[in-house]
Amino acid sequence: MIEFLKQPGVYECFWLLSGFLICKILSSMLGIVHIYRYVKNINLSCFSMIMITFASLVRGVELKKDIMVESEVEKLIIDNVIKSDCERLNTWKDAALQNLHTFSPIAFKELQETMDKKRL
Prior knowledge:
The chain is mostly helical. The chain has a domain at about 35-120.
């Protein structure tokens, strides 16, 4: 086998093909890393969008409470309405985060685990 590689031109072709193969392997590996980072950024952006929307809705509930207090609605009614709104908002937030987790690729499931660890 070594005598075959020592022939004129074969040695250079061997290194050319080896370099081409290594280049293809490295580019595919770097492409996978790039896609991984891209999808992870998309998941983080979606998570941020859900949290920003949730915060806006909470501010809306607070504004609703202030308006009801200014309108002199009974405190018991205000408490029941606000409690119901908060329960629905939390249900919506949990469903949105669960859908984000469910529809993300399997390779990115550790993102949820990371968020759970930070929450504790």
